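Narrative progress, year one. The postdoctoral researcher (J.K.) led the effort to move from monomer predictions toward full complexes, under supervision of the PI. The following entry was the first complex the group processed end to end, covering 403 residues in total.
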Amino acid sequence: MERFEITLPARAAGAARQTALAGVVSSGNLEVLVEAGQDPATCAIEVNTSAHGFREIWEAVLADFAERYPAGGLRIAINDAGATPAVVSLRLSQAFEDSTGEDS
Amino acid sequence: MNSRRISYFEASARARVAALADAGSFREYCPPAERRTSPHLARLDAPVAFDDGVVVGSATVDGRPVLIAAQEGRFNGGAVGEVHGAKIRGLLERAAREKPAAVLLLVDSGGVRLHEANAGLIAISEIMRALMAAQAAGVPVFAFVGGSCGAFGGMGIVTRLCDEVIMSEEGRLGLSGPEVIETVKGVGEFDSRDRALVWRVTGGKLRRALGEATRLVDDDARDFRAAAIAALSNHRRAPADLADLKAAQAALARRRSAHPETRDGLEVWRALGLPQPEAVPMLSSDAFNRQLHELSAEA
């Protein structure tokens, strides 16, 4: 497993967020856990992945997420079993939307 | 509760719980945020899941209080590790204390998690003991089998301990899985790549016909919920005392002599006298249940 943490600047999430989980840890898939964090101006993300050597791609995908969503003040934890960048983006979006507590 | 069809087979453990429980009634114990992950998988440098592949909690179903456990078949084949098993055991022990209307076990598992070997085996035996203690305390336990991993190995035994076994044709129930049988006894004994054979032998219709499953439903989470509601108001009881067990043993002996040398579900359909044995795999659960009912009415 490769493990790293990234803290990204992000717009404040604003309204109260609830804990949300999207995805399942299975081959080519991942789970994303979204919780309330400390600093409203940043999004702290912890990645645990079975695929070694892809940190640059992770950083690009996560930076894209932090740009697209008001993810400030959130803490995100990821257990990954070799998901592609598109699947990672999808799960991040799903978990973020679930954390708003609105039924999609 | 959704009005649209949700494939139970395709749904995640969490989606199954949401579909079976009354809307908004589910409260999770040991939720993902508590990060009760497997120390064994971590030591093997393998990916972990925040819920260790099983969701446990309380809910209501049609207004009645239940405890629910749902295994996630896509995480390590729903296999039972130490934490995973402890969550199910703890839920069953809670049931013996709190006496809900029932415990719903949404089984989707190949059995013991091989990475955790002895800890997984012990967990299975603890689940069995806790399940029977809950039943002895008067709490019925219902198994639901309709996922991609079916119910095999230790979880196949756990399933058969339950008061009701609610299955879809897509779910499979057995002790040794098809690949295990083929590995041990050879392809002549069981060709695990013959999907049609696998389902004819381990699928929900054969299990229902032989009495191992108590209800057969279509692959729709709404049908599983309807079966749960029906079972809550009137359910079969698992054999509890010596007389029950002897009667169950006698029934098994009768079944064995009624189907001598049978190797395939198809031969069972013929022996039972179903009108079109070859067409059975494609029948809806309603049509199949009706045919079984007519046969038992004739007998």
